[in-house]
Amino acid sequence: MAAFHYNFAIICRVPNALKNRSVGSDNYPEGIDIEKAKQEYETIREVLKNCDINIIELVEDESYPDCCFVDDTAVVIGNTALIARPGHSSRQGEVGEIRKVLKGDLRMNVVEIQNAKATLDGGDVLFTGKEIFVGVGKRTNEFGAQAVAEAFPEYAVSKVNFANCEALHLKDVFNMAGRNVMAVAPGPDVQVVLRQMQDVADYPYSVMQMDSRLATDMLYVNGHLIHHVRQEMGDKSYGVLDEKILTPRHHVQMTELSKVGGTIGSLAILITRTRNPKRFISNIQDEDLGYFTMWKRSDPHN
């Protein structure tokens, strides 16, 4: 089965508690417009449906203000689901309902983290379709990264030091924009992480340099790219997508959810449920490589 093809998504409604009790609400002590945040979530839900995805929608739990950001609770690739252990203690209870759905409803191969010292946020795990990068830093530690490697032995899993990056999660600043295209946020701290990834990668990727984090926030699914509206991305980055992305696109507004650290990808656990699970294969063609800055680093000694 080709990478980035999904038939299910687990999402969770936005709780009222997100307004002023979420982990990210410290940046907005006055709170966010919760009704607008719910509208943004509903728009993304409909866009996912339009991308031929079956939606499994969970009821919000006011005991967990960040429960709508489900991506942090599990890492799902193929028929294997690794239950995460979020790095912020207030979020660790969120995994219970996710585990029930993955194991009971979808009958996935559910893997638990055995090391009690491990922490792992799904937002730190970037699956490129061919290999996996894990950002070790604020929310995910070395033991959590090791758990990813053990859960998905069929893929190369590379750890990158993310501790000195200003962003909270790896996927706040790196996302796949296509079958072999990686969108990268600006900033010298991000470039340091990018060079690490280039050094340890088993495969080359094309780099699409964006000019803001919001512009980098995108989700590639079933041949469609979901990204922010022009007003949030800015004309320059939106123009980059116009020029370089040839697949169907859907733009969504994330003004309120992004204030508390929400991203498009954080709102969904994407799942490929197959009767006879097989390893994902990449369907990248040579012609896909012609539009972007190439991944390979130049040799500084030449």
UniProtKB/TrEMBL annotation:
Keywords: Hydrolase. Gene3D superfamilies: L-arginine/glycine Amidinotransferase, Chain A. The keyword Chloroplast does not apply. GO terms for biological process: arginine metabolic process; citrulline metabolic process; positive regulation of nitric oxide biosynthetic process. GO terms for molecular function: amino acid binding; dimethylargininase activity. PANTHER family: DIMETHYLARGININASE, DIMETHYLARGININE DIMETHYLAMINOHYDROLASE. Belongs to the DDAH family. This is Dimethylargininase. It comes from Lymnaea stagnalis (Great pond snail).
